[in-house]
Amino acid sequence: MDWKRLFHVLVVGGSVLASKGCGGKDEDKGEARDAATLSDATAAPEDTGGDAPADAATSPPADAGLDAADDAGDAAVEVGNLAPDASPEANQSGAPNCFCGTNPKCCVVHGDGMSVPADGVVCCWNTRCP
Amino acid sequence: MPLTAVAPAEDPVGQVWLVREQTEYEAAMHFALLAGELVAAGFPAGLAQAALRASRDELEHAALCREVVAAHGALAPLPPRRGLRLGPAPLSRWQRAVYQAVALSCITETLSVALLLEMRALARDPPVVAAVGRIVRDESRHSQLGWAVLDRASAAGDVAWLSAHVPAMLRAALDSEELTATDDDLGGHGVLPPARSRAVTDAVVAQVILPGLARHGIDVSAGC
Lengths: 130, 224
Known about the structure:
The structure holds 2 protein chains of 2 kinds. By secondary structure, chain A is α+β, with helices and mostly antiparallel strands.
């Protein structure tokens, strides 16, 4: 098992989620995070050898599908099965992250019955329009 | 309704997955409660929504576990083992939300992810492959939720008070891990040998959970 990778995906990935948020304007109700805290949250963790990828600020997924390596003896976790819209950091356009599936404002229903994200909305936490 | 097993009790695979089903139902209750605590404590709505979604995920996991149980005999579901509320009584609302997130997600779900990854590498039985694959994907998100809450909490205030609670949280999580009393090779059915389970849990505690808590200023020396 690649424990450093697991640390990175879960712990650092969770911190990135906290800083990026999910829920659009609702996030503004939360505690403000200053730049120093954000920097700390995305830094390579010293506890695990400090060799997390240099792009730690952007690489942890919002919904890390963890894939064991093919080699069962080296169950390194990978970031895989990640939909492009699943990660808050994938939203570079400034569009609001939205918790699709439970928040009706996130999705619109087309005439053919298809429910899709509203214009300018990015579904986060790997949520989907129902 | 009788809650005792009605299928051959000697089937360790059915027994293990029966307990997993029970654990998933318990987790569904805990995540639903966590969602309410997060709202009450003023955490961002997105985190509470994620907790609600986790609760729903856990119900679906229970259904996947039931499919495996059914393949190993018709065992009736077990009742939940624990009370709903996690943590000691004298906690503020904010502290209780953080406590629950850490106990449930940072510790228990992180442990689960590590064990499930190990199981997934060995699983061969089709219902087990399907269940483990789905569950590990979701549990990774549930684990991240806890670390996200802790990150928010540590940015807003001191969370060092959690230090005194880490040993009890770890004990509770580790005690809930099943240990099969069989030496049979059941890896294909998603059952790890006890020695392997212990090795994985020891490693994930030492290399993921405790460093993760420490980076938020929580003293983990008592948990090592």
